[in-house]
Amino acid sequence: MKALRVGVMGYGTVGRGVVRMLLDHADLLEARTGCAVTLRYIADHNTESDRGVVLPETVTLLNDAHKMIESEDVDVICELIGGTGIAKTLVLKALQQGKHVVTANKALIATHGNELIAAADASGVELMFEASTAGTIPIIKSLREALAGNEIREIYGILNGTCNYILTEMREKGLPFETVLADAQQKGYAEADPTFDVDGIDAAHKLTILASIAFGMPLSFDAVSVEGIRHVSAVDIAWATEMGYRIKLLGIAKRCDGKVQLRVQPVLVEEESMLGAVEGVFNAVFVNSDFAGSTMYYGRGAGEEPTASAVVSDLIDIARNVQAGAKMPRIYPLGQPTAQLSMPTMCPVEEMRDAYYLRLSVLDRPGVLADITAILKEHRVSIDAIVQKERSPVEHVPLVIVTHEVTERQILDTVAAIEKMDSVSDKPRMIRIEDLGVA
Amino acid sequence: MKALRVGVMGYGTVGRGVVRMLLDHADLLEARTGCAVTLRYIADHNTESDRGVVLPETVTLLNDAHKMIESEDVDVICELIGGTGIAKTLVLKALQQGKHVVTANKALIATHGNELIAAADASGVELMFEASTAGTIPIIKSLREALAGNEIREIYGILNGTCNYILTEMREKGLPFETVLADAQQKGYAEADPTFDVDGIDAAHKLTILASIAFGMPLSFDAVSVEGIRHVSAVDIAWATEMGYRIKLLGIAKRCDGKVQLRVQPVLVEEESMLGAVEGVFNAVFVNSDFAGSTMYYGRGAGEEPTASAVVSDLIDIARNVQAGAKMPRIYPLGQPTAQLSMPTMCPVEEMRDAYYLRLSVLDRPGVLADITAILKEHRVSIDAIVQKERSPVEHVPLVIVTHEVTERQILDTVAAIEKMDSVSDKPRMIRIEDLGVA
């Protein structure tokens, strides 16, 4: 029987999950791949901590990853260190040494992936990263294989479980962002420094990867327009709920008018839509493509076992290639050879078109509404709905407007004009409304 | 460049979709597989009808499928005829001739798959059938590849779009089954003879296939307990809705206590669950597995283009095998070699445990409720909720009971005892309540 000898680099949460899965399910993996998938090495700077896993004698625990990479008796390295420092150096070295690499590292792939793919190409090895994007969900496999005969039109992804958990809790409990974030940190759903998650950077890394595969473009993290959820207020969530919407942080990749737009933003989606139903720490990716139409993929975006499952799925693909004697890479990391990737024209943010939710704080006086609608008309922004519930002769009250589809340029100009009105206090709040275009 | 030469057998709706996709996206397929995927033959008994597709000179339209199968210049046959008659003969012949086969035919695979897989094994060719189950959704690929490192615990599938459309319409419009069925037939969502769909047979074919891959068992259509949706009434749908449930026809495959249960049944699922959100002609498959946890896959279950996308995804996998010079089958049709499949102990229907919705028609008289609850107690059926809304001194009124988890044996005995009461008219209606066990 052929064998695939595995080295795990980084023995933290995900590393532990992969180690456990390889040990617990060794028989199952052999039955399903026809190849012995055997753990040989684990490398971590900490070789002392008890991870609660009994390692068999056939597994060597090292504190020097270089030794593992240089070893003759390892075929594939799982990089589960994270970050773009030492992880990059080690992955590059492994590829150059002719080892296949499987990684869960979204930041590494999104920001250094082009260089790493070139190294994998040069060595004729697989570089796989299913676990990097939407955790256990096989979205990379689905785009790269199941939907590969389609032209992909749009991707909408709930790609960050921390943000989705926070937004769900804010809605269900009516609490402000800071309170829910603190709670999420205590429960281990958010990092001590939550920047990567709540500012949308993590979701943007993942969107970068999905967009490259979907649109055949090089990895282009800098092309993503990014906005996080810090400014989403409990008030806006309550309004959205009342109007039949949910607020979700979405990663959006779209083709429109021959251009590509990539953005991460909190948006309103219909409560009754499939993405509207995705709550808590779960992730989901909704894809529109020309033949398959609307498809969606749902599951846990993080965690020891779900992430391990995705890492191991990549190992299974490689093991099946080994068993079948296939020339590798059998599938290119971005779904097609690097030479065929090309950078599309990007759509500037201000040209992107959407409907908008606007929340103003206005004085409840005669003529104010007329002035506001006049400004909207002047900027050719047409109104889908307008709601004012509270009345007060002396205080500012919220006025919510839902517009038809307009460009961001139009809405920014409109809001700037409204902001100058004496009867308007505070900065108007604007959130895009995404029509998921189920087809 | 290597090539995969394709023959399409059956030029109906799905055949037309596959032909269009291969012609429209020839460049894209070549870019993504590194292999020229070229349509060579189409075979259909009707070569005269205009399908609105302009065929290039390189494609030969035949009315004799045998000629295509025997041809030296075709590598893979797409069987899109349907049924288990001529389709079986032709697929078997193609496999014996050493051609790969891709089919969308669920009935064929569910009822003759073991024989066909043996023929494919003997010839060393691929037999693939992604399009057979849940249309465009890559559920077979996901089970066979993405989740292959997991032990699968449970599958819950909305596998029949016709039934889901009918149930959705009944709920939204408050109409009876027959009315909605007639409307669905007129719209082309239901066949003139709707038996296969509404009696659950089509869903059972699909469940058979999913269960084999998930549980490593031979295809065992006869092991599925099947109940359709003809007896689902608008009244039950209204009650379910009021209690926060949706009624869905689910294909259910579960492991419990070392046994496997396979059934197709209308069941109540929570309105807020992911499957509860799947409406109209869409399909979805929810999978619980040990490492990945809960995952779900959603998309169109039928239609020219969605089904074509699934057929072409199988062609893409084969083309990538050809390009990589892989020994085939690279992945066995049921996810592991036939010799390793084994039949589990099946759980008899009467031993299956679930909560139940019961709707009785009772006289609103003193003592009736006490008598009913006494019968429930006697059969050790504990009550989660009990609702009687209407009051009438003379007529029978509905009484709805939701039980805790019990065996089907218990509930059948209970209902038989209740039915004998003088104060109960009509046959009590019972529907299982599925706890989807999100984890």
TrEMBL record, chains A, B:
One of its GO terms (molecular function) is homoserine dehydrogenase activity. Belongs to the homoserine dehydrogenase family. SUPFAM superfamilies: ACT-like (SSF55021), Glyceraldehyde-3-phosphate dehydrogenase-like, C-terminal domain (SSF55347), NAD(P)-binding Rossmann-fold domains (SSF51735). The lineage of its organism: Bacteria, Pseudomonadati, Pseudomonadota, Magnetococcia, Magnetococcales. GO terms for biological process: methionine biosynthetic process; threonine biosynthetic process. This is Homoserine dehydrogenase. NADPH binds at K106. Residues 357-432 form the ACT domain. Keywords: Amino-acid biosynthesis, Methionine biosynthesis, NADP, Oxidoreductase, Threonine biosynthesis. It comes from the Bacteria. Its EC number is 1.1.1.3. The active site is at K206 (proton donor). The keyword NADP applies. Pfam families: ACT, Homoserine_dh, NAD_binding_3. Pathway: Amino-acid biosynthesis; L-methionine biosynthesis via de novo pathway; L-homoserine from L-aspartate: step 3/3; Amino-acid biosynthesis; L-threonine biosynthesis; L-threonine from L-aspartate: step 3/5. L-homoserine binds at E191.
